Fold this sequence. Notes:
Strand content: 5-15%
Domain PpiC: 257-356
Structural class: alpha+beta
Shape: elongated
Radius of gyration: 33 Å
Helix content: 40-55%
GO molecular function, one term: peptidyl-prolyl cis-trans isomerase activity
Number of strands: 9
Largest sheet: 4 strands, antiparallel
Region (Disordered): 64-92
Number of domains: 2
Enzyme class: isomerase
Organism: Gimesia alba
Order of helices and strands: HHHHHEEHHHHHHHEEHHEHEEEHEH
Amino acid sequence: MRYAQVYFLSLVSLGMMGCETTPKVDNPVLGPPPPRLESALKQQKLKHAEIASRANDRKSVLEGDFEDSENPFETPVITASTTSSNSTDEEADDFLSDSTVVAMVNGAPLFVSDVIGIYDFQLKQAEQRMPPEEYKKLRRALVKRDLKGHIERQLLIHEMKSTLKKEQLDQLQEVLETAFEEERIPELQKGLGVNSPQELEEKLNQQGRSLYSERELFIKQQSAIQFMAVKAKATNDYSREEVLARYKANIKDYEVPSKVRWQRIRITYAKQGGKEKAVGVLDEVIHKLQAGEDFGELAKKYSDGTRAERNGQWGWTRRGSLAEPEIEKALFELPIGQTSQVYETANSFQIIKVNDRKEAGHIPFADVQGKLEQSMISEARMKATKEILEELHAKAVIETIFDLDEEEVKSTNSAVQ
């Protein structure tokens, strides 16, 4: 997609030069958002029972409250009055068919098939193993989970069509179709283990998909993504000084505690038949250490510890991770390479040796500079994206057949896998 992205950026940038973000009234591709929600509904003949026949007073639907959300990306939605205690049960009973209109975005309808069509294969499998009522709930949960993203994509596409000229849109369509043929189709073939577009079509058909639907999805996704990249003017690089300032401001995130690598010979009273016999083994170990024998070999032969087979070796151990304070204190004070005195605990004798130690400090700036800069770039893009979406939401006319309560669909993923 690289060449397509470059072309897209050039095309859109030219189209946006001198243009305001507010759609032009005389735009030949798509007019401005409808001024009133009621007219949009009439124009599109939105007849769904959730909207057109539930409430006795239609005004309660058309003039519903815009609900606030802590999620900055959530679209303000108009909801019908929920004074009836049976409204939730009624919603659960309604089956959302593929042709059901679930949202109107600036006069354009979003159908159930637009939102969950990509799950057709999984949904068919789920329908076979789930009770009908559970399957209805699953479809509804999927729509509610994914609808917000589709609304935002629709907003971006509407803005793009209101900004670019018809000939630019036609050129963009050609570029994305070429990118689909030359790049996306080979990716799909590789992913599904086929060698030709014909085999790919057959494989997709088995999953309730097609090359046509894949192409349409690809073009919509790429149009929205690339247009957002142009609209969201975020910083793409930061100076060393700016990244260093962020590093210093969050220096605690890069703290590294002190740690040691060490060995231990542990002689337990129980395994030696009592403390007196353990003392005899300990004396033998001390004598051999003084004679210059290898600490690891002695640990492997005499130690009762869990790491005896590994020559008593312990990997990097952080301060505060041991249950024996006296042993831990010695680990961080004993000179590297020196064998310790004998430590007597409630159930064992222990001798330790420190092989390496790293003092507490911080991850060097040079080690994190690149990753930190990428994080800052990502944050800037997210902030710019949020601002663009908020701007588009503010001037859009949006209605859904239900509010986007994500708490109800937390378990949706597992249900369709």
